[in-house]
Specification:
The complex is a heterodimer.
Chain A: H1 12-29, E1 43-48, H2 54-65, E2 69-74, H3 86-94, E3 100-105, H4 110-114, E4 121-127, H5 133-147, E5 154-158, H6 165-176, E6 180-184, E7 200-202, E8 213-216, H7 222-225, H8 232-239, E9 251-253, H9 266-269, H10 276-295, H11 299-302, H12 309-312
Parallel strand pairs in A: 1-2, 1-3, 3-4, 5-6, 5-8, 6-7, 8-9
Chain B: H1 10-13, E1 27-36, E2 41-50, E3 53-59, E4 70-73, E5 78-81, E6 83-88, H2 101-110, E7 113-118, H3 129-142, E8 147-149, H4 165-171, E9 176-177, H5 186-199, E10 203-205, H6 210-213, E11 218-219, H7 222-227, E12 231-232, H8 234-251, E13 254-257, H9 263-275, E14 278-283, H10 285-289, H11 311-323, E15 328-329, H12 338-341, H13 358-367, H14 374-381, E16 403-413, E17 432-442, E18 445-449, E19 456-457, E20 459-460, E21 466-467
Classes of the chains: A alpha/beta, B alpha/beta.
Chain lengths: 313, 468
């Protein structure tokens, strides 16, 4: 695989191959010296147009544990703030010959667009409200560790689905792994047409008990300014996952950072059912596997060389 | 009035369509398949153009070239009345890096157009007599085909104060429009309708409700849900059309709805026409041939406003052409510079170029598969000026020569040899299409000639010597 742009592009086999490798990398995280030489001499460039501490540092750790050199390029304080276009920024950075560019932007399709401007492997770390494929992969990895298999499992994704790239990637990834997905949230935050992705749609939590896994989405405060819901209080009253609503055998997930008291009550965040820190931990090994996949790949793909600069032009 | 008579009326007399002076054509178009649906003309003819006017029309093989005239061998290829476009963006003044009067009208001629009407959303906005006057003067120097201008309904397209419509009209305004934006304030729009009684001029309307469109970048539907791109719902357009039809009915005014995109909109216009509202409307080639499925790859060239909608919407637009609810085809030719469009989809400006591809796109996708008859398409491509009370091009003796010669069998790839337009943001780029414009005569002047096809025999002087 040359790039990781979306879950939509992946087959179940692709996902399993990447996650099997992630499982193999788990062992590295338990060593005293947490480093293997798999990507020694390779350069990974983190290009983040949106504030991100978790995802960026997770990618940085993943690259470093594989012995790659990492350069972080944040949009604030850079030429981007001086008005440089995405294309010019990418062309400038590509002149340093990075082997991979990890990119997050507020715009759908931007990661795919960048592939036409550089020979580097592109990893999408979030493109607008479109996809966040490594988040979905780490979530599947976490569930495989927790439950063994997703086959036939019932997963509810609860909250602001309309503005969530995590929801979009996870609906696709969970289904590809054999799970049944239900999305649930205020009608103003469920996009028209989402059921075409194959998920069920609910507007209340009455049937939540049927879920094996409850995946709560972050309720972003800026949505309040746009009046998608009347108040956070009313949102919490209807959609908060709390001790009363969460069953004892249900697994609770959240992409972080959590708004305690809004989408999740403090008690469930601290409960043993919550796998939120396990998700963060999975992030590093899954991103190691993703970087390995796009930079070293499988035997088959080593035979198909990357395009040269000339071919791209 | 016979169908092919000019539609000039007292109202339209003041409209100025302007182009640079050029030598009127003297031509013999030999053995062409002349098709003019309004004149019920369809057959093999010879057409003689003398001093820019259609002088003779006779059965193929019966006419000879006048002295010093060029002979064009039609070989049975189709000759239509040239197309007219009531909705193009020529970007002058202020955005000449995208297009100007010369490149825009060159693109028009290359697409078979003999007249276009330019929109006022330029920098500055065409909202005062001095700006309109300067534009008309510029067109008289630069335009390859006649251009008319529609100034703004409201100053600066701000939607609050009316422009000096009477003065603009006296100077030759083809009508008025805030294209690119709706006149969102119903009270302001009502005053514009009332003012039409003084100054005349159709109000051409870009219909959407800004509060429903929000920050939408594509059609709201299954594809936008999958892509996570904010949607523009169909009802943003149709509810505004319903409002404006009701206001036009109340004020007995004339309106023209630009670029219909949704099936709900077709239904609203049909109902208004049944009630007797003086409303006309247009549809663009891209809305007739593409849907939101074509936006899955997030190619910014396929981002336009209104957006490409669903297959049901596309079918309703095609049916609207058949039933007569939709009066004409207009391209909404909207050039943007390459670096403006080479950005993520949600960041890209709205618009696609269209003048050079309109006929081929529609012919390939709708006529060849038998969805629409050729004569209907020709009629709808030539009807736009009639809505402004201007002359509709016709193939008839005594008419100014507004003609387009087309090779329906010629296959080409859009963009393979560049564009006449300064911009290349064409939503049909890289598509293989059929139907190529070979020759355009606009207002009696040869405006375009396709270079790779040898059509003509050399001029022959009275002494029998060949002239280069």
């Amino acid at each position: 695989m040359r790039h990781l742009l979306s879950i939509e592009d992946l087959t179940r086999d692709d996902i399993e191959r990447i996650l099997d490798r992630a499982a193999a990398f788990e062992e590295v995280s338990h060593r005293d010296i947490k480093k293997v030489p798999a990507l020694r001499g390779r350069t990974v460039l983190n290009l983040f147009y949106e504030a991100s501490t978790r995802t960026r540092s997770s990618f940085e750790l993943a690259a470093k544990r594989l012995s790659a050199d990492v350069v972080n390029f944040a949009a604030s304080g850079s030429s981007v703030e001086k008005g440089e276009s995405l294309k010019d920024t990418v062309l400038t950075l590509a002149a340093h010959s990075p082997d991979a560019i990890v990119i997050r932007t507020p715009y759908a399709g931007a990661a795919a667009l960048v592939t036409s401007w550089t020979t580097a492997a592109i990893v999408n770390a979030g493109d607008g409200k479109h996809e966040h494929p490594t988040q979905a992969l780490l979530d599947v990895h976490t569930l495989r560790q927790k439950l063994g298999s997703l086959e036939g499992r019932n997963i509810w994704i609860v909250g602001d689905v309309a503005h969530s790239r995590v929801a979009r990637s996870n609906i696709l990834a969970f289904q590809k792994m054999g799970a049944d997905v239900t999305v649930c949230g205020p009608p103003t935050l469920i996009p028209r047409g989402i059921e075409a992705l194959g998920c069920a749609v609910r507007y209340d939590l009455r049937q939540l008990r049927e879920a094996d896994v409850v995946y709560a989405l972050r309720m972003q405060h800026e949505r309040m300014d746009q009046h998608f819901v009347p108040s956070l209080r009313e949102y919490a009253a209807n959609y908060q996952i709390n001790g009363r609503r969460l069953g004892p055998r249900q697994v609770l997930m959240h992409p972080g950072p959590v708004n305690r008291g809004v989408e999740l009550s403090g008690e469930v965040v601290d409960s043993p059912q919550a796998v939120i820190t396990m998700q963060v931990k999975s992030g590093v090994v899954v991103r190691m596997a993703v970087l390995y996949e796009v930079l070293v790949g499988t035997r088959d793909e080593r035979n198909s060389p990357r395009p040269t600069e000339r071919q791209l032009a | 009035m016979t169908p092919h008579e000019p539609l000039n009326t007292a109202d339209g007399d003041g409209v100025r369509l302007v182009c640079a002076p050029a030598r009127p054509a003297d031509l013999l178009l030999r053995n062409v398949r002349a098709l003019d649906p309004r004149a019920s003309l369809d057959g093999l003819y010879d057409v003689v153009v003398r001093a820019g006017e259609i002088a003779e029309l006779g059965p193929a093989g019966t006419l000879s070239a006048p002295a010093a005239a060029e002979t064009v061998e039609g070989d049975g290829r189709h000759l239509f009345p040239a197309f007219v476009d009531p909705h193009v963006h020529l970007r002058t003044p202020g955005q000449e890096h995208k297009e100007d009067l010369e490149t825009g009208t060159r693109a028009a001629a290359a697409g078979g157009y003999c007249a276009v009407i330019a929109m006022p959303n330029t920098a500055p906005v065409v909202d005062s007599a001095p700006i309109l006057g300067a534009l008309l003067d510029a067109a008289a120097r630069e335009a390859r085909v006649p251009v008319g201008f529609m100034p703004a309904i409201t100053r600066g397209l701000q939607g609050s104060e009316l422009t000096e419509m009477a003065e603009l009209r006296a100077l030759g305004a083809a009508g008025f429009t805030d294209d690119g934006r709706p006149v969102a304030d119903a009270g302001v729009f009502r005053r514009a309708l009332q003012y039409q009684r003084l100054c005349g001029g159709v109000l051409a309307l870009h219909e959407e409700d800004p509060s429903l469109s929000g920050h939408g970048a594509m059609h709201e539907g299954v594809v936008s849900a999958l892509l996570g791109v904010a949607g523009i719902p169909s009802v943003s357009e149709s509810t505004m059309i319903a409002r404006d039809c009701a206001l036009a009915e109340y004020e007995q005014a004339r309106i023209h709805i630009q670029h219909l995109s949704a099936r709900e909109s077709v239904a609203v216009v049909a109902a208004a026409k049944t009630r007797g509202v003086a409303v006309t409307c247009e549809v663009s080639p891209h809305h007739l041939t593409m849907t939101d499925e074509d936006v899955r790859g997030l190619d910014p060239r396929r981002k336009m406003n209104p957006p490409l909608r669903s297959e049901e919407d596309r079918q309703a637009l095609i049916e609207g052409l058949r039933s007569g609810v939709i009066d004409c085809i207009a391209t909404d030719h909207a050039p943007h510079a390459r670096d403006e469009k080479e950005v993520p989809f949600e960041r890209a400006p709205m618009g696609t170029t269209g003048l050079e591809t309109a006929f081929a796109a529609i012919y390939t996708d709708l006529v060849l598969p038998g969805i629409l008859p050729l004569d209907l398409v020709v009629e709808k491509l030539t009807a736009g000026l009639g809505l402004l009370d201007l002359v509709v091009p016709a193939i008839a003796v005594g008419q100014p020569a507004n003609l387009v010669l087309v090779d329906l069998d010629a296959e080409w790839v859009v963009g393979e040899s560049g564009y006449e337009s300064r911009s290349e943001n064409c939503c049909f780029a890289d598509r293989t299409v059929r139907g190529r414009v070979l020759l355009t005569v606009a207002a009696g002047v040869g405006a375009y000639r396709e270079r790779s096809t040898i059509l003509s025999v050399p001029h022959v002087t009275s002494e029998g010597q060949s002239v280069q």
